[in-house]
Write a structure and sequence with these properties.
The complex is a heterodimer. Chain A is α+β, with helices and mostly antiparallel strands. Chain A is built from six helices and six strands; from the N terminus they run ββαββαβαααβα. The chains are: A alpha+beta, B mainly alpha.
């Protein structure tokens, strides 16, 4: 379970989050809904530690993530998959290399195993025969789906998705929920 | 003043963060070799071209100025050799590389920052600064001395060819000059300077790229800042090292 307790976050004089608390239960798909510019992305980035909170804490199964050092956060970070609004694919790597990147960094899988896992994840998001293309050669929606495939490659315990359906056609949001 | 101190403090914090234990050493080693090719081999043509012409200009200008009949013609070889080894190759070539390498490093890392690629690395539990910057710094520390030595050879050769072709310094005099009163310590001094400058031309632009926020405009600004600050630091450290080691 992820618990967010009384967090506040400001950028200069602009308060984006003030005393926000919420809980995300295990095994559930939780949605954060709000208007544009209301701080949904900031809340999510605070939850994963990309932004440091000014006040309050974020707990992962009781572990206080906010007060951890970079080294202490590492094992939790490896349990997190995140889909960014813009996909955040690595420009210099092919689609397959993007998906296998976390596997290459954190597992001892053979190349064949990594390729199989990449194909499996890409298949889950309905992408075939794009393994050797660079992100610049695929459409925005395809980039988003590759990013989903990368986010699920390590079979993460926590999956954060920032506007997962934007840029996808009507067919693919459904496949994301299944993924 | 407060802003400058903040930047200096954040720069040293950034450098400290580079040295966390690598996630997978083999991947870092592979990255170092890739960066050596990018930074070093990719800059060789520029270094060779600049060095050949600068060597030629130094030789012809030295010959033009050494018109005293008391000064033998082979002294042109000594002047050209020492100018190239002590100052031209380690300092001017590293300033040229600060422009080429610095802008490429800052814009690459800055673009990764504004497109959230660095955030993606962090989310995976990867030390993003270590993964992106440390291989570049190590590669520069290893390849820049090689590039500078090549620059010295090409520069001295350029001077020889220009002196001979223009008839200003005959080959025999030039070759006698470059072998006369040679101090091997000058090469050591040049290598010390090169290593310090190599660290500057990679770490300073990388720092500016890493802390870019905004969009394409800010990436351009970071790139410019990276080149300007690394060039200024090269000049300051050139003076400091010369004062410390040669004075």
């Amino acid at each position: 379970m992820i618990a967010i307790e009384n967090i506040s976050k400001s950028f200069g004089n602009k308060k984006v989050l003030e005393d926000v608390s919420c809980e995300f239960d295990k095994g559930k798909i939780n949605l954060i809904i709000g208007g544009s510019g209301q701080g949904k992305t900031v809340l999510m980035k605070c939850a994963v530690g990309l932004f440091e909170v000014d006040k309050g804490k974020v707990l992962y199964d009781g572990r206080n993530f906010s007060e951890m050092t970079f080294g202490e956060r590492k094992p939790i970070r490896q349990e997190i998959g995140m889909l960014f609004q813009g996909g955040a694919l690595f420009d210099s790597l092919t689609v397959e290399q993007n998906v296998t990147f976390p596997l290459k960094m954190f597992t001892n899988m053979t190349n064949a195993e990594k390729r199989d896992r990449a194909n499996f994840c890409l298949h889950r998001v309905n992408l075939e025969n794009v393994n050797h293309l660079l992100p610049s050669a695929i459409s925005g929606g395809m980039k988003k789906r590759v990013a989903i495939a990368r986010a699920i490659a390590m079979n993460p315990r926590y999956l954060f998705c920032d506007e997962p359906n934007s840029g996808l056609d009507l067919k693919h949001p459904f496949s994301l929920t299944n993924s | 003043m407060k802003g400058t101190l903040f930047e200096i403090g954040r720069y040293f914090g950034f450098i400290k963060n580079l040295f966390y234990k690598p996630e997978k050493l083999s991947i870092y080693v592979r990255q170092v070799f890739r960066e050596m090719v990018n930074l070093g081999i990719g800059s060789l043509w520029l270094v060779a071209l600049t060095s050949a012409f600068m060597g030629a200009v130094i030789t012809i200008q030295s010959a033009y100025n050494l018109v005293n009949p008391m000064v033998p013609l082979w002294a042109v070889g000594i002047v050209a050799r020492d100018s190239i080894i002590i100052e031209f190759s380690p300092t001017i070539i590293m300033l040229v590389l600060a422009g080429k390498v610095g802008s490429s490093v800052a814009s690459e890392i800055g673009t990764m920052r504004v497109t959230e690629q660095i955030d993606a690395l962090e989310i995976m539990g990867i030390n993003s600064s270590g993964y992106l910057v440390l291989p570049k710094i190590i590669a520069a520390l290893l390849i820049c001395p090689v590039v500078v030595i090549i620059s010295m050879i090409v520069g001295i050769t350029g001077g020889w060819v220009a002196g001979d072709l223009s008839g200003v310094v005959p080959s025999a005099d030039y070759l006698k000059g470059i072998q006369n009163q040679f101090l091997p310590f000058n090469v050591t001094f040049a290598m010390i300077k090169t290593v310090v400058f190599a660290f500057i031309i990679t770490s300073v632009p990388a720092y500016h790229g890493y802390y870019t926020s905004g969009g394409a405009l800010e990436v351009g600004q970071s790139s410019t800042k990276g080149v300007v600050y690394s060039s200024i630091l090269i000049l300051i450290f050139d003076y400091l090292l010369t004062q410390l080691i040669l004075a």
